[in-house]
Write a structure and sequence with these properties.
The chain contains 13 helices and two strands, in the order H-H-H-H-H-H-H-H-H-H-E-E-H-H-H. By secondary structure, it is mainly alpha-helical. It has two domains: about 45 residues, Orthogonal Bundle (Arc Repressor Mutant, subunit A); about 180 residues, no CATH class. Helix 4 packs antiparallel against helix 12, helix 5 crosses helix 6 and helix 12 runs antiparallel to helix 13. It is elongated and about 45 Å long. It binds a DNA duplex (21 and 21 nucleotides) through helix 3, helix 6 and helix 10. It is found in: Nucleus. One of its GO terms (cellular component) is nucleus.
Length: about 260
DNA sequence: AATTACACCAACCGCACATGC
DNA sequence: CGCATGTGCGGTTGGTGTAAT
C-alpha cells in the first residue's frame, strides 16, 4: 500500500541536469515563481519529476546561492551548530545565508565529521587549526587506517532513523530528537553506529529549558525571562549568532538576524 | 601507463508534516 | 474528521575526478 510516488517515473529524465534544462527551469520560475512543483514539469516542458525540479532550484539554481568553498568561519559555525543541533541541516542552512542544507550536509559528511571524530576535544576551532581547508590535507594517511566504505556498510548494521521534518510543534509532539541522536554527551554512538561528538540538546538542558527551546525552535528564549545567561545552553545559538554577525558584518549580518528572528517567532 | 581506492557532491529516495478539500 | 496532495527533510546512492600504488 502506501502513498503513490510523487510522480510517474516513466519517460522522465534522471541524473545530472543539462544547461538547457537549467535554463528552462530558471525562466519558468522567473515567470511563475516558486511552488506547485508537481505542475512545473508539465507547464515548463521539462521531463523531470517535480521533486527533482524543486531540488535543483533549491540547491543549485536559486540566485542567492553562494557557490564556492566554505570559509573557515562558516566551517567553524557549522561545527558549533552541529554540536547543538545535530543533523538539523535545514536549520543550519537558515543560519548560513547562501548555503543549502544539502551543501552543509555534504560538507559535514565529507570534511567535518571525520575531523571532529578524530579530534575529541575542542572541535569547534578546527578551522583555526587547519586554516588551509580540508582539501589541502593529505588524503591517504587517514584512509589507510580506515575501513573502506563497503566494509563499513557490511559492519555497521544499525537502525537508521527516518527523516523527520523539524517544526516547533512536531518536536514537542514527537520528541523527535530520539530519531537522530543517542547518548547524553560527546563520544557516544549515533543511531548510524558512528561516533558522535556533539551533545544531545536534551542532555544539556533542564526539562523546563527543553520545553522553552523546543517551543522556540531551538533559539534562545529571550522573551521568557532567561536574560541571555551565557551559561544557559539554550542561549548558545544567540551567542553563535553574535559571533557570526561579527564575522559577516554589513548587510548579510542583518539578513541573518532577520532570518534568525523568524526562527524564534 | 594502467589499475585501484577514495573523496567529493549532485541527485535520488522515502518518509513525515502541512494544508486544502 | 479523514483523505489526498504538496512540500520539506535527512539519509543514501552513484558518477566523476584524482591521488596512490
Amino acid at each position: 500500500m502506501g502513498r503513490a510516488p510523487c510522480c510517474s517515473k516513466v519517460g522522465l529524465r534522471r541524473g545530472p541536469w543539462s544547461i538547457k534544462e537549467d535554463d528552462i527551469l530558471i525562466s519558468y520560475i522567473q515567470q511563475h515563481g516558486e511552488g506547485h512543483w508537481r505542475s512545473v514539469p508539465k507547464k515548463s516542458g521539462l521531463l523531470r519529476c517535480g521533486k527533482s525540479c524543486r531540488l535543483r532550484w533549491m540547491n543549485y539554481l536559486r540566485p542567492d546561492i553562494k557557490r564556492g568553498n566554505i570559509s573557515p568561519d562558516e566551517e567553524d559555525l557549522i561545527v558549533r551548530m552541529h554540536s547543538l543541533l545535530g543533523n538539523r541541516w535545514s536549520l543550519m542552512a537558515k543560519l548560513l545565508p547562501g548555503r543549502t542544507d544539502n551543501e552543509i550536509k555534504n560538507y559535514w559528511n565529507s570534511h567535518l565529521s571525520k575531523r571532529v571524530s578524530d579530534a575529541p576535544t575542542e572541535p569547534t576551532r578546527a578551522a583555526e587549526t587547519n586554516p588551509s581547508g580540508p582539501k589541502s590535507a593529505p588524503k591517504r594517511p587517514i584512509d589507510k587506517i580506515e575501513l573502506t566504505k563497503k566494509k563499513k556498510k557490511q559492519m555497521v548494521k544499525v537502525h537508521q532513523p527516518k527523516a523527520v521534518r523539524v517544526s516547533r510543534f512536531s518536536i514537542v509532539r514527537n520528541n523527535s530528537f530520539d530519531s537522530g541522536v543517542s547518548g547524553a554527551e560527546g563520544g557516544l554512538t549515533s543511531s548510524s553506529g558512528t561516533a558522535v561528538k556533539y551533545l544531545d540538546v536534551r542532555s544539556v538542558l533542564e526539562d523546563d529549558d527543553i520545553h522553552d527551546v523546543y517551543q522556540l525552535g531551538y533559539g534562545c528564549n529571550t522573551s521568557m525571562g532567561e536574560g541571555g545567561d551565557p551559561s544557559n545552553p539554550s542561549c548558545k545559538l544567540d551567542r553563535i549568532l553574535e559571533e557570526y554577525k561579527q564575522l559577516l558584518k554589513g548587510d548579510s549580518g542583518s539578513q541573518l538576524e532577520s532570518c534568525y528572528d523568524s526562527l524564534r517567532t
